[in-house]
Amino acid sequence: MKHKILVLDIDGTLTNSKKEITPATRKAIYALQENGGIAAIATGRPTSGTNWLIDELRLREYNGLIISYNGARIVRPATGEILYNHPFPKQFLPQIVTYAGEHEVGLITYDCQDNVITASRVDQYMELESRINNLKIIQVPDLVEAVTFPINKCLISGEPDLLAPLTEELAKRYYGVLNIYRSEPFFLEIMPPAIDKAHALERLLPSLGISREECVCCGDGYNDITMLRFAGVGVAMGNAQKEVKESADVITLTNDEDGLVPIIEKYFLDDTKTI
C-alpha cells in the first residue's frame, strides 16, 4: 500500500448533507484500517465535538487520530494522549472582542469542557455550532473576564457577505501574529499564528514515520485548503468550494454520492481503480 494515512474533514466530506456517515463510506474506512492504513480526522470542531466518531469509525481499535480546532490540538483516542496542543495568545482577545462588537458579529470560544461560551447575542450560526457538536452555549457578561483558562481558538459568526471583507481586514491587521481564515462562509476562524491543518500534519507525520507523499487529505471547505496543498494527494469533494477544488490534485464525487469511497479504493485498497 503506497499511501499510509487518510486525513478527513468532517462536515461536507466525511458526512453527507444529513450530517451522517453513510454505510458505504463507513465500510470503506473500516477496510482502509483493516488493511493497515491510518484514519485521521482533521476538523475545525472542538475536540469533544468529534467524540461520536471515535466509536463509529473504530478509531481506538485501529489507533486513529483526531486533529481538532483546525490543527491546534492532536489527540490519540486509543490512549487519550494529547500529542500536540497550541494555545491561543489571549493578549489579543480584548481586541477581537472589541472588533466583533463594533461590527455587530457574533464571537465565541470554548471552555475547558469545550462548551461554547459567548457574550454576544446568540445567532443561528452559533446554534448550528452548538447543535452539530452537541455542546451547550453558555452566555457570559464579559468574554474577556470569563476566559481564565487556556483556549485554542475564537470563532466569529455572521452573514457571509459581511464576513468576507472582515476576513481580509483582520488578516491584514494581524498578519504574522494570528492566523485568520473562513472555514464556512458564515464562520471566521481566529487562530494562533501559523496554525492550520497543514501545520498539524507537519508536526504529526514525522512522529508516525510517514512522509507527506504517503498522505491523502480530503476536504470541501476553505480551512481544508492548506492540507490539500500539503498532502501527497489532495482531494476536493464534488461539493467543495471553488477555491478548494482549485487547490486539489483530484476532485471526487460529492459527499452525498459517497465521494470518499473511490478515493479509499484507489489510494489504499486497489490502485488499479479509477475515480
Helix content: 25-40%
Biggest sheet layout: 8 strands, mixed
Distance between the termini: 17 Å
Into how many domains do the coordinates divide? 2
In CATH, the topology of the largest domain is named Rossmann fold
Shape: globular
Total count of helical runs of at least 4 residues: 11
Order of helices and strands: EHHEHEEEHEEHEHEHEEHEHEHEH
Give start-end ranges of low-pLDDT stretches.
Answer: none
What order do the strands of the largest sheet run in, or round the barrel if closed? 5-4-3-2-1-12-13-14
What is the CATH level 1 assignment of the largest domain? Alpha Beta
Let me know the CATH homologous superfamily of the largest domain: HAD superfamily/HAD-like
CATH architecture assignment of the largest domain = 3-Layer(aba) Sandwich
Please report which band the strand proportion falls in: under 5%, 5-15%, 15-25%, 25-35%, 35-45% or over 45%: 15-25%
The gyration radius over C-alpha positions equals 18 Å
Arithmetic mean pLDDT: 95
Give the beta-strand count. 14
Counting helices, strands and paired strands, the structural category is alpha/beta
Description of the molecule:
Strand 2, helix 3 and strand 3 form a beta-alpha-beta unit. With 275 residues, this protein is α/β, with parallel strands linked by helices. 35% of the residues lie in helices and 21% in strands. The protein has eleven helices and 14 strands. It has two domains: 157 residues, Rossmann fold (3-Layer(aba) Sandwich); 102 residues, Hypothetical Protein, Haloacid Dehalogenase-like Hydrolase, Chain: A, domain 2 (2-Layer Sandwich). The two termini are 17 Å apart. The chain has an eight-stranded mixed β-sheet with strand order 5-4-3-2-1-12-13-14, with helices on both faces. A six-stranded mixed β-sheet has the order 8-7-6-9-11-10, with helices on both faces.
